[in-house]
Amino acid sequence: MDSSPHPTTATSPPPATGTVSGKAVRPGDRIFLGFSRGSGIALLAIMAAIAAFLTYRSVLAISGDKSNFFTTLDWNAVGTEPKFGIAVLAFGTLVSSVVAMLIAVPVAVGIALFISHYAPRKLASPLGYVIDLLAAVPSIVYGLWGALFLVPQLSGLYGWLNDYLGWTGIFSYSNGAARSLFTVGILLAIMILPIVTSVSREVFLQVPRMHEEAALALGATRWEVIRMSVLPFGRSGVISASMLGLGRALGETMAVATVLSPSFLISASLLDPGGGTFAQNIASKFSEADTFGQDALIASGLVLFVITLLVNGAARLIIARRKEYSGASA
């Protein structure tokens, strides 16, 4: 009887149906790759279609405009001699968004740092949950709260700013309802605060623990750890979170329309009624505009589209420049 061991039969791998970079690819991976690639191409096609539609309708509006499309200081897209000015709407949109960012980003970063590095776990978890819930509140709810509560409460603040800072011209205020770009900026800051806070908190929680422990071992205080390890590591994430918030601020419609009383004038004072924003103007005038007026409103939407792309592109450049400091490879 042959006592030699029987040769083991090697189990052959399942047949590969394709290769990617010289490696075998399973059918499920190929299907997923196809769906992912198709989704990316579809997204680019949709963006191109939107841009083409906006451009076509905008050309019709600009070619029929009887005044300067960019510098006219009023909006009259209905009638025999239509005229409209993007400058007023661009001014209102950018000013209100900048005010919102100046208020919301520092507060959001502070809240995110408190939740991630200061608050005890029993408090941090419920507080983070509440922040996430605030991000889901509908815009119209914020708008109603702003119109019924925020606007009446800001009259005293406006008077104080006028008394002590009115000489700057930026905070000069004449009596009236506090329905200005500054009010819109405060409301937008409250709306984007949960978004910036949530993303920043998750970024700060990803800081390598060894970085913080090394700083503490060298005798750094809690604030020095945050300043030297946490903030540099999370800078790109905070910029990304800020751009998400800015995107919502630029395109917010119902909340702005509920609070703002536009005058279609460019004023140096933030406390005077401003010229409105792109989204608010489109929402309030589209239903009553004629064909040319709708083309004009679509043209203003194209300008907002371009502004958003420029802002996101600038954010990507900033993030790319800061990408070399990640700490992940340490």
Automatic annotation (TrEMBL):
Main site of residence? membrane
Q: Which residues form a coiled coil?
A: none
Which residues does the annotated region (Disordered) include? 1-23
Mind telling me which Pfam families this protein's record contains?
A: BPD_transp_1
Bilayer topology reads:
Multi-pass membrane protein
What Gene3D superfamilies does the record point to? MetI-like
The record's annotation in NCBIfam families points to: phosphate_pstC
Q: What is this protein called?
A: Phosphate transport system permease protein
Q: Which organism is it from?
A: Streptomyces lunalinharesii
